[in-house]
Amino acid sequence: MGTRLERREEQAAEIVDRLEEAYPDSTISLRYSNRLELLIAVILSAQCTDERVNTETEHLFEKYDGAAEYANAPQDELAEDLNSITYYNSKAGYVRDSCQTILEEHDGEVPDTMEELTELSGVGRKTANVVLQHGHDVVEGIVVDTHVQRLSRRLGLTEEERPEAIEQELMELVPEGYWQQFTHLCIDHGRATCTARNPDCSDCVLADICPSEKGDSDVDLASGDDW
Hints:
Layout: H1 8-22, H2 35-44, H3 50-63, H4 67-72, H5 75-81, H6 88-105, H7 114-117, H8 125-135, H9 146-154, H10 163-173, H11 179-192, E1 219-220, E2 225-226
Antiparallel strand pairs: 1-2
Helix pairs in contact: 2-8, 5-6, 9-11
GO molecular function, one term: metal ion binding
Keywords: 4Fe-4S, DNA damage, DNA repair, DNA-binding, Endonuclease, Glycosidase, Hydrolase, Iron, Iron-sulfur, Lyase, Metal-binding, Nuclease
Enzyme class: lyase
């Protein structure tokens, strides 16, 4: 039986405590060696698995070195280098355009503010948050990917649907010192147990405080659909 704790702040703290115990080594799964590689990897990860991105960037990062090489690469060639990535044509354009802006406006360095990052092609607040947190050690928000979106709704932390609105609500509930780690914990738990289509509620460390738990609830609060 799953019952959310009375106060959402308590619910958020309990979720963090339990998931930290379950996933003590939780961290970012994208592979990169500098800020530009991080930015490119996150752009490529939109609607694509990190595993697939890591496979693709292994050779991509060997071929291209620095913003100028990406900016000057022919669109068709760069797209072909990314052809196993979802929406690879569009993402090739985002990478080229972003690197051009980085060269022209930021002296070839990946910028370190939310405003400047979100002005880059293909970069929204989620991508900017990842780059700030892992590239610049700046934590000013919570990365809301599909796992965070799904789990935060299932667990009764929010009823919002848009990532931006979910982030603002989570920032009021999750202790600020855990803003970065909260995302990684949700991703690990979302992959291992609380999957989108068939969550394993019988083996979930959060089942007793989850209002979507299948043994007690008829509705998946993430989607609003019946189980």
